[in-house]
Design a protein that fits this description.
mainly alpha; single chain; about 260 residues
Length: about 260
Amino acid sequence: MSSFGRTFIALLELLGQVAALFGEALMDIARGRIRIRQTCRQILSIGAGSQSVVVVTGAFTGAVFTAQVYGIFKDLQVENASGGLVSLAMCRELGPVLVALMITGRVGAAIAAEIGTMKVTEQIDALRAMAVEPVEYLVVPRLVAMMISIPLLIAESIAFGILAAYLVGVVHYGIPEAAFMTHVNNYTDPADIYFGMIKGFFFGLIIVMVACQRGLTTENGAVGVGRSTTSAVVIASLMILISNFFLTMLLTPLFGFD
Protein backbone atom coordinates (compact mmCIF):
# COMPACT_ATOMS: atom_id res chain seq x y z
CA MET A 1 0.00 0.00 0.00
CA SER A 2 1.33 3.46 -0.87
CA SER A 3 2.23 5.98 1.80
CA PHE A 4 -0.71 8.13 0.70
CA GLY A 5 -3.11 5.24 1.22
CA ARG A 6 -1.71 4.49 4.68
CA THR A 7 -1.96 8.16 5.63
CA PHE A 8 -5.54 8.38 4.40
CA ILE A 9 -6.58 5.27 6.33
CA ALA A 10 -4.85 6.56 9.47
CA LEU A 11 -6.69 9.86 9.07
CA LEU A 12 -10.05 8.11 8.74
CA GLU A 13 -9.25 6.01 11.80
CA LEU A 14 -8.34 9.14 13.77
CA LEU A 15 -11.54 10.92 12.74
CA GLY A 16 -13.58 7.87 13.72
CA GLN A 17 -11.95 7.70 17.14
CA VAL A 18 -12.48 11.43 17.72
CA ALA A 19 -16.13 11.15 16.64
CA ALA A 20 -16.71 8.15 18.92
CA LEU A 21 -15.10 9.95 21.87
CA PHE A 22 -17.18 13.06 21.16
CA GLY A 23 -20.36 10.99 21.01
CA GLU A 24 -19.56 9.34 24.33
CA ALA A 25 -18.87 12.72 25.93
CA LEU A 26 -22.14 14.12 24.58
CA MET A 27 -24.04 11.17 26.04
CA ASP A 28 -22.52 11.87 29.46
CA ILE A 29 -23.49 15.56 29.16
CA ALA A 30 -27.03 14.63 28.11
CA ARG A 31 -27.32 12.38 31.16
CA GLY A 32 -26.18 15.22 33.43
CA ARG A 33 -22.86 13.60 34.28
CA ILE A 34 -20.99 16.88 34.56
CA ARG A 35 -18.55 17.30 37.43
CA ILE A 36 -19.05 20.93 38.41
CA ARG A 37 -15.86 21.34 40.40
CA GLN A 38 -13.70 19.85 37.67
CA THR A 39 -15.46 21.95 35.05
CA CYS A 40 -14.91 25.17 37.01
CA ARG A 41 -11.23 24.37 37.36
CA GLN A 42 -10.98 23.86 33.62
CA ILE A 43 -12.81 27.12 32.94
CA LEU A 44 -10.22 28.92 35.05
CA SER A 45 -7.39 27.13 33.26
CA ILE A 46 -8.74 27.49 29.73
CA GLY A 47 -10.58 30.80 30.00
CA ALA A 48 -8.89 32.95 32.62
CA GLY A 49 -5.49 31.42 31.98
CA SER A 50 -5.62 32.21 28.26
CA GLN A 51 -6.65 35.86 28.52
CA SER A 52 -3.16 37.33 28.23
CA VAL A 53 -2.47 35.28 25.11
CA VAL A 54 -5.81 36.26 23.59
CA VAL A 55 -5.42 39.97 24.35
CA VAL A 56 -1.93 40.14 22.85
CA THR A 57 -2.99 38.14 19.79
CA GLY A 58 -6.04 40.28 19.11
CA ALA A 59 -4.41 43.64 19.83
CA PHE A 60 -1.32 43.17 17.70
CA THR A 61 -3.26 41.51 14.88
CA GLY A 62 -5.58 44.52 14.72
CA ALA A 63 -2.66 46.93 14.93
CA VAL A 64 -0.60 45.26 12.21
CA PHE A 65 -3.56 44.78 9.90
CA THR A 66 -4.49 48.45 10.28
CA ALA A 67 -0.97 49.52 9.38
CA GLN A 68 -1.03 47.33 6.29
CA VAL A 69 -4.51 48.35 5.18
CA TYR A 70 -3.88 52.06 5.75
CA GLY A 71 -0.96 52.12 3.31
CA ILE A 72 -3.04 50.56 0.55
CA PHE A 73 -6.18 52.57 1.25
CA LYS A 74 -4.21 55.81 1.37
CA ASP A 75 -3.06 55.24 -2.21
CA LEU A 76 -6.72 54.76 -3.14
CA GLN A 77 -7.70 57.83 -1.09
CA VAL A 78 -10.15 55.86 1.06
CA GLU A 79 -8.02 55.60 4.20
CA ASN A 80 -11.00 56.56 6.38
CA ALA A 81 -12.52 53.15 5.59
CA SER A 82 -9.59 51.29 7.19
CA GLY A 83 -11.43 50.82 10.47
CA GLY A 84 -14.42 49.16 8.84
CA LEU A 85 -12.32 46.61 7.00
CA VAL A 86 -10.21 45.79 10.05
CA SER A 87 -13.23 45.33 12.31
CA LEU A 88 -14.94 43.09 9.75
CA ALA A 89 -11.82 40.98 9.29
CA MET A 90 -11.29 40.66 13.03
CA CYS A 91 -14.87 39.53 13.60
CA ARG A 92 -15.20 37.02 10.79
CA GLU A 93 -11.72 35.56 10.28
CA LEU A 94 -8.67 36.88 12.09
CA GLY A 95 -10.12 36.79 15.59
CA PRO A 96 -11.60 33.27 15.52
CA VAL A 97 -8.81 31.56 13.59
CA LEU A 98 -5.80 33.11 15.31
CA VAL A 99 -7.28 32.71 18.78
CA ALA A 100 -8.13 29.08 18.04
CA LEU A 101 -4.57 28.40 16.86
CA MET A 102 -3.12 30.06 19.97
CA ILE A 103 -5.48 28.10 22.22
CA THR A 104 -4.41 24.93 20.42
CA GLY A 105 -0.79 25.62 21.26
CA ARG A 106 -1.48 26.53 24.86
CA VAL A 107 -4.47 24.45 25.96
CA GLY A 108 -4.50 21.61 23.42
CA ALA A 109 -0.89 20.73 24.13
CA ALA A 110 -1.48 20.86 27.89
CA ILE A 111 -4.54 18.60 27.69
CA ALA A 112 -2.76 16.03 25.53
CA ALA A 113 0.32 16.04 27.78
CA GLU A 114 -1.69 15.79 31.00
CA ILE A 115 -3.96 12.97 29.86
CA GLY A 116 -1.10 11.24 28.06
CA THR A 117 0.98 11.26 31.24
CA MET A 118 -1.95 9.78 33.16
CA LYS A 119 -2.28 7.09 30.48
CA VAL A 120 1.36 5.94 30.51
CA THR A 121 1.54 6.01 34.32
CA GLU A 122 -1.62 3.86 34.50
CA GLN A 123 -3.63 6.50 36.37
CA ILE A 124 -6.49 6.06 33.90
CA ASP A 125 -6.55 2.33 34.65
CA ALA A 126 -6.68 3.26 38.33
CA LEU A 127 -9.74 5.44 37.65
CA ARG A 128 -11.49 2.49 36.02
CA ALA A 129 -10.55 0.30 38.98
CA MET A 130 -12.28 2.81 41.27
CA ALA A 131 -15.40 2.71 39.03
CA VAL A 132 -14.72 6.20 37.67
CA GLU A 133 -15.38 6.58 33.95
CA PRO A 134 -12.35 8.32 32.35
CA VAL A 135 -14.44 10.13 29.72
CA GLU A 136 -16.78 11.53 32.36
CA TYR A 137 -13.89 12.54 34.65
CA LEU A 138 -11.34 13.80 32.11
CA VAL A 139 -13.05 14.67 28.83
CA VAL A 140 -16.46 16.09 29.78
CA PRO A 141 -15.17 18.86 32.11
CA ARG A 142 -12.67 20.02 29.50
CA LEU A 143 -15.26 19.88 26.73
CA VAL A 144 -17.83 21.92 28.67
CA ALA A 145 -15.20 24.41 29.79
CA MET A 146 -13.98 24.90 26.23
CA MET A 147 -17.53 25.34 24.92
CA ILE A 148 -18.07 28.12 27.46
CA SER A 149 -14.66 29.78 27.29
CA ILE A 150 -13.56 30.02 23.68
CA PRO A 151 -16.48 32.08 22.29
CA LEU A 152 -15.91 34.63 25.07
CA LEU A 153 -12.16 34.64 24.43
CA ILE A 154 -12.79 35.31 20.75
CA ALA A 155 -15.14 38.20 21.56
CA GLU A 156 -12.44 39.63 23.82
CA SER A 157 -9.83 39.26 21.09
CA ILE A 158 -12.09 41.05 18.60
CA ALA A 159 -12.65 43.92 21.04
CA PHE A 160 -8.95 44.44 21.66
CA GLY A 161 -8.19 44.10 17.95
CA ILE A 162 -10.63 46.91 17.11
CA LEU A 163 -9.29 49.00 20.00
CA ALA A 164 -5.73 48.58 18.71
CA ALA A 165 -6.92 49.45 15.20
CA TYR A 166 -8.44 52.65 16.62
CA LEU A 167 -5.19 53.59 18.35
CA VAL A 168 -3.09 52.97 15.24
CA GLY A 169 -5.52 54.51 12.78
CA VAL A 170 -6.78 57.52 14.73
CA VAL A 171 -3.92 58.30 17.11
CA HIS A 172 -0.94 57.34 14.96
CA TYR A 173 -2.08 57.93 11.37
CA GLY A 174 -4.50 60.74 12.11
CA ILE A 175 -7.68 59.28 10.62
CA PRO A 176 -10.60 61.44 11.85
CA GLU A 177 -12.23 59.70 14.79
CA ALA A 178 -15.77 60.32 13.51
CA ALA A 179 -14.94 58.85 10.10
CA PHE A 180 -13.17 55.84 11.64
CA MET A 181 -16.04 55.01 13.99
CA THR A 182 -18.66 55.63 11.31
CA HIS A 183 -17.07 53.05 9.02
CA VAL A 184 -16.68 50.59 11.89
CA ASN A 185 -20.39 50.92 12.70
CA ASN A 186 -21.46 50.76 9.06
CA TYR A 187 -19.40 47.69 8.17
CA THR A 188 -19.76 45.73 11.43
CA ASP A 189 -22.98 44.35 12.87
CA PRO A 190 -23.59 42.14 15.92
CA ALA A 191 -24.13 39.31 13.43
CA ASP A 192 -20.46 39.57 12.45
CA ILE A 193 -19.42 39.05 16.06
CA TYR A 194 -21.80 36.11 16.42
CA PHE A 195 -20.36 34.70 13.20
CA GLY A 196 -16.88 34.64 14.72
CA MET A 197 -18.05 33.28 18.06
CA ILE A 198 -19.93 30.41 16.41
CA LYS A 199 -16.83 29.54 14.42
CA GLY A 200 -14.83 29.62 17.63
CA PHE A 201 -17.31 27.28 19.31
CA PHE A 202 -16.67 24.62 16.66
CA PHE A 203 -12.92 25.26 16.75
CA GLY A 204 -13.02 24.67 20.50
CA LEU A 205 -14.71 21.30 20.00
CA ILE A 206 -11.95 20.32 17.59
CA ILE A 207 -9.18 21.39 19.96
CA VAL A 208 -10.42 19.59 23.04
CA MET A 209 -11.55 16.39 21.33
CA VAL A 210 -8.35 15.93 19.32
CA ALA A 211 -6.22 16.66 22.40
CA CYS A 212 -8.18 14.24 24.58
CA GLN A 213 -8.11 11.52 21.93
CA ARG A 214 -4.36 11.89 21.49
CA GLY A 215 -3.86 11.78 25.23
CA LEU A 216 -6.03 8.71 25.78
CA THR A 217 -4.19 6.75 23.06
CA THR A 218 -0.68 7.61 24.29
CA GLU A 219 1.83 4.76 24.48
CA ASN A 220 5.57 4.18 25.00
CA GLY A 221 6.21 6.31 28.06
CA ALA A 222 7.64 9.81 28.02
CA VAL A 223 8.49 9.58 24.32
CA GLY A 224 4.88 8.76 23.55
CA VAL A 225 3.67 11.74 25.60
CA GLY A 226 5.84 14.05 23.51
CA ARG A 227 4.56 12.53 20.29
CA SER A 228 0.94 12.76 21.40
CA THR A 229 1.36 16.40 22.39
CA THR A 230 2.98 17.32 19.09
CA SER A 231 0.44 15.42 17.01
CA ALA A 232 -2.45 16.96 18.95
CA VAL A 233 -1.27 20.49 18.15
CA VAL A 234 -0.53 19.73 14.49
CA ILE A 235 -3.73 17.78 13.80
CA ALA A 236 -5.98 20.25 15.62
CA SER A 237 -4.36 23.22 13.84
CA LEU A 238 -4.83 21.62 10.43
CA MET A 239 -8.42 20.67 11.22
CA ILE A 240 -9.15 24.24 12.32
CA LEU A 241 -7.80 25.69 9.08
CA ILE A 242 -9.67 23.14 6.96
CA SER A 243 -12.94 23.40 8.87
CA ASN A 244 -12.73 27.21 8.72
CA PHE A 245 -13.36 27.05 4.98
CA PHE A 246 -16.38 24.77 5.30
CA LEU A 247 -17.81 26.74 8.23
CA THR A 248 -17.44 29.95 6.22
CA MET A 249 -19.22 28.43 3.24
CA LEU A 250 -21.99 27.08 5.49
CA LEU A 251 -22.52 30.07 7.78
CA THR A 252 -22.18 32.87 5.23
CA PRO A 253 -25.54 32.27 3.52
CA LEU A 254 -27.20 31.53 6.87
CA PHE A 255 -26.18 34.96 8.14
CA GLY A 256 -27.12 36.60 4.85
CA PHE A 257 -23.57 37.74 4.08
CA ASP A 258 -23.48 36.42 0.51
